[in-house]
Amino acid sequence: VAPSKLTMMNAKDASVLLAPSPAGQVYDSMYYLKGAAAGGICCSITHGALTPVDVVKTRVQLDSVKYNKGLIGGFRTVVAEEGAMALTTGLGATAAGYFIQGWFKFGGVEYFKINAVKALGEERAWELKTPIYLGSAAAAEFIADIFLCPLEAVRIRSVSDPEFCDGLVDGFSKMAKAEGIGGFYAGFAPILAKQIPYTMAKFAVQGNVADKMYASMGKTPADMSASGNLGVSLSSGVIAGVAAAIISHPADTLLSKVNKAGAGGTGSMASRLANIAKAEGFVNLMTVGLLPRCVMIGTLTAGQFGIFDTVMSALGASKFHFHNPNE
Question: How deeply is 266 buried, as exposed, middle or buried, from its count of CB atoms within 10 A (0-12, 13-18, 19+)?
Fold first, then answer.
């Protein structure tokens, strides 16, 4: 299937901030660069803006006995004991880490998804769109997590111990001296266990919900106004975010705890994770901190897809959408 025949969102009125793709080659390296840039921007903005919620969520996961009054109670406890600025703990690591992660995640999903369609043809790809979403998301997330894990380790350590460092660079320096390179990847297994199912659910659910919303209106993205497409992105993003949060929550809790100094004992990573899981119990892993995580991820995911689509349009790119060639 020629790239020019793939269905696109209408971006006729968008200004081109990066060099335009060559005529007839809409989905080329410039398109993937724009997708990566939009992904980095949307993830950095949304994760950075929700840092206070993530601080409270992480504290609840690390010390559910002390922080046992829900999301609002957690905010009050942190502010009362440490001041309002404590809610911005880890902001630098969060913004930097998720820009890099978003770059590879959103850019990677676009790359793998579009090349799968080119290889399979539009008709077969339409039949296999959910597996394509799942496979593309898993591959892109694995690559992204290689870069995210060190920054996430510094963020969690700084949230669990506010005295640990005075910013991102200081945190990297102290962790490297104390634990070596291995310390940055102590949570790599659980971050994969959290992020890969989360991202698979996020993109597959959002894509399918958005398709159903367009179908229910009898329209394609090209038929809709910019505000109409943004509404679809935000609505489908909320649903996808809540689904992804529930699926990935146990691993998210383990990740928060394994990055806490001394958590799970001193054995191998597998034994530490097993010790933490045994001590917490299945119900606690599934439920402790779940409500604030659903609030955070539902809001965050809606914002990400909304910002991603907006930035892509501003960059003069036309976002790929699966298309039923028989319609």
Answer: exposed
pLDDT score recorded for residue 11: 43
CA dihedral 253, 259, 263, 268 (to 10 degrees): 100
Angle subtended by helix axes 269-280 and 226-258, to nearest 10: 100
Cα distance between residue 302 and residue 305, in whole Å: 6
- Integer-rounded Cα Rg, in Å, for the chain is 21
- Asked whether the CA dihedral 30, 36, 39, 43 is positive or negative, the reply is negative
**Whole-model pTM?**
0.75
Q: State how far the Cα of 183 lies from the Cα of 144, in Å rounded to an integer.
A: 18
Lookup: tokens for 236:
């489908």
Q: Among 2-16, 50-64, 226-240, 245-259, which stretch is predicted with the lowest mean pLDDT?
A: 2-16
Nearest CA to 246 out of 202, 207, 281 is that of 202
d(CA 272, CA 286): 18
Query: Is residue 13 pLDDT above 60, yes or no?
Result: no
Give phi and psi for 304, each to the nearest 5. Answer: -60, -50
Which tokens go with 261? 């100094």
Angle ∠(119,122,123) on CA atoms, nearest 5: 115
Find out whether 37 and 311 touch, Cβ atoms under 8 Å.
yes
> Cα–Cα distance between 24 and 30 in angstroms, integer?
13
Interatomic CA distance for residues 188 and 36, integer angstroms: 23
Question: By the 8 A CB rule, do 20 and 317 touch?
Answer: no
Q: In the numeric block, which tokens belong to residue 86?
A: 């404590």
Question: Exposed, middle or buried, 159 (CB in 10 Å: 0-12/13-18/19+)?
Answer: buried
Instruction: Give me the pLDDT at residue 312, please.
Output: 92
Are the beta carbons of 136 and 108 closer than 8 angstroms? yes
